[in-house]
Amino acid sequence: xxxxxxxxxxxxxxxxxxxxxxxxxxxxxxxxxxxxxxxxxxxxxxxxxxxxxxxxxxxxxxxxxxxxxxxxxxxxxxxxxxxxxxxxxxxxxxxxxxxxxxxxxxxxxxxxxxxxxxxxxxxxxxxxxxxxxxxxxxxxxxxxxxxxxxxxxxxxxxxxxxxxxxxxxxxxxxxxxxxxxxxxxxxxxxxxxxxxxxxxxxxxxxxxxxxxxxxxxxxxxxxxxxxxxxxxxxxxxxxxxxxxxxxxxxxxxxxxxxxxxxxxxxxxxxxxxxxxxxxxxxxxxxxxxxxxxxxxxxxxxxxxxxxxxxxxxxxxxxxxxxxxxxxxxxxxxxxxxxxxxxxxxxxxxxxxxxxxxxxxxxxxxxxxxxxxxxxxxxxxxxxxxxxxxxxxxxxxxxxxxxxxxxxxxxxxx
Length: 413
Prior knowledge:
Layout: H1 15-18, E1 24-27, E2 36-39, E3 46-48, H2 55-70, E4 75-77, H3 85-93, E5 99-103, H4 104-111, H5 154-157, H6 162-169, E6 179-181, E7 195-202, E8 208-214, H7 222-232, E9 237-239, E10 249-253, H8 255-260, H9 269-274, E11 280-283, H10 285-289, H11 295-301, E12 308-311, H12 317-322, E13 328-332, H13 337-340, E14 344-345, E15 358-363, H14 369-381, H15 384-395, H16 401-412
Parallel strand pairs: 3-4, 11-12, 11-13
Antiparallel strand pairs: 1-2, 5-15, 6-7, 7-8, 9-15, 10-13, 10-14
Helix pairs in contact: 2-16, 4-7, 15-16
C-alpha cells in the first residue's frame, strides 16, 4: 500500500498527481440512463538519474525521487550515468531520462558557452573597498532590581497609586543603568533586493548606531541565475527554482571563534568584517589571488581590516584548525570538515561569490506546476548546512546516499 503523508511542512498536495492511477469518474443522468465513464490520462513517468561516482549527485537524485513519490508522482530510478555535463545535457534532450541534479552557477556557465549562445550575463563588482559596519551586539537587557522596604508598607501600597504610576511610566521607560540592544531577527538577510538595518541603542539615548546593507540585483543570486539559465536553454529543457543549499567557497569560523565573539552577532560576512581586527582569516592561494570572487571581492563587498591573512589550501584545513592557525577559513561549502569540526558558515548575503545552488535539470515534458512545487518545497529545507551534514555521513561515515536521503525526507514528514 502506498504511504500517504499529510504534512504541510514539505509538500502541497494536489489532486492532479493523485489521480494518475486512471481513476474512473462515473456520472448518472437524471432519467436513469446508462452511466458515462471517463478515464483520466496518466501523467508522464519521471525518470530520475544522477552522475555515477558523484556522491552528492546520487544523494540529491535520491532526495528528488523520494519527494516526487511522496507527492504522488510515478517515479523510475535510472542507474547513475557515466556522463559529463555536456553528455547528460544532450541525453536529457534525447529522452533517456527526465531529471538529473545540477548546480545553478555551473550550469549557467555551461549553457552560455554553447555555440550560438548569447554572451554570459555580466555581474557587478563594486569598484571601491566597502565601509566596515559597526558590530551588532547580542540582545541583552539588565533591569534594576525592584526596591524593597523593611517597614510596614501594606497600607501605603493599597492606597491611591494609579495616578502616580501612570504619569511616571509614560516618560522614560528605560530604568537607570539598563542597557538594551536591538538585535535583528534571523531573517534579516534575504536573497531579494532589500535593505536591512540593525540598531544599537544605549540607555538615555547617548549612543545610537544604525547600519544599512543593500543587497541583491548584482546578477549573482539564485533567482537571477535561474532566469538566465532558462532563457538560454531550448524549450524542451527547464531548471527548477533551486534549493537553498549551495556548492561554492564560503567563509566558515571555528567553534572557538564563535564562542570568543558570543557578545556580537556573527552570522554574515558583514558581521565578520565588523570584528575583522580580531580575526585571522585563512584561504587557498587561488582565493587570495581571485579578483572577481576572492579576497579582492571580499574587500569590495564587505570590507574589513583583518588581523592576519594566512594561506591554507583546502586539503590542509582540518590540520590548520587543530593547530589553531586561523580563526575563519575559506573552504568549499560541501567539505565535510565543516560538520566534522563544527564550523559556522558566514552568510554571503551580497553574493560576493556567485550562487551555485542545487537545482533539478529536467525535461519540460514533466515540469508541471505540481512537480515544480514539490521540488521547491523540499528545496526550502535543503540548506547548505544540512547538505554538508549529509555529505559527512556519506563521505566520512560511509553511509549509503539513498539511506541518507530517506532519513532526511523522513524528518520533514
